[in-house]
Amino acid sequence: MSWLTVETPLPSGALHVAVTAQGVAAIGYHGREGELPHCTDESKIAAVTGRIGEYLAGRRRELDLPIDWSLSSGPHRVVLQTLFHQVPYGRTVTYGELAARSGVFADVEEPGLAARTVGQMMAANPVALLVPCHRVVAADGIGGFGGGRVGIEVKRWLLTLEGVLEPTLDWNGPL
């Protein structure tokens, strides 16, 4: 596994992306410099930076990058793959709806437990952006996003990019 940095217009700044022979294994909105070796594979660097750049500029709706799912397993992977396959660009799903779609929580009877668990799973999504956890919202609003206030700003930015939210006066994304 090796890391590369992708400069972005996101409120969080650059993305840090881990790649393996299988694909993208992790994306972080916060720095991880020095944890792993830097990626030197020019074709991987070009594909990742190019596609993320095009997506964030509004010129691409699908990132079409291979995903290395090795950092998730069991029910977490099932929920992430359900999100990946069933919630397209410009759409959202609530935490509870994603829980139901995944089938993982069929035996859970406590109201709200499945939705809260999905929220925790989204916070632990190793391949954020590729598996679009920003598209998972609360039943009564935008919901949370890892990284506190900056995380919520990133979520709003991405949902505005995808047309889910109307641009605000301070919108700095593509028109």
From TrEMBL:
It is an enzyme of class 2 (transferase). It comes from Kitasatospora misakiensis. Its EC number is 2.1.1.63. Belongs to the MGMT family. Keywords: DNA damage, DNA repair, Methyltransferase, Transferase. InterPro entries: MethylDNA_cys_MeTrfase_AS, MethylDNA_cys_MeTrfase_DNA-bd, MethylDNA_cys_MeTrfase_DNAb, MGMT_N_sf, WH-like_DNA-bd_sf. It catalyses: a 4-O-methyl-thymidine in DNA + L-cysteinyl-[protein] = a thymidine in DNA + S-methyl-L-cysteinyl-[protein]; a 6-O-methyl-2'-deoxyguanosine in DNA + L-cysteinyl-[protein] = S-methyl-L-cysteinyl-[protein] + a 2'-deoxyguanosine in DNA. It comes from the Bacteria. This is Methylated-DNA--protein-cysteine methyltransferase. One of its GO terms (biological process) is methylation. Gene3D superfamilies: Winged helix-like DNA-binding domain superfamily/Winged helix DNA-binding domain (1.10.10.10). GO terms for molecular function: methylated-DNA-[protein]-cysteine S-methyltransferase activity. The keyword Transferase applies.
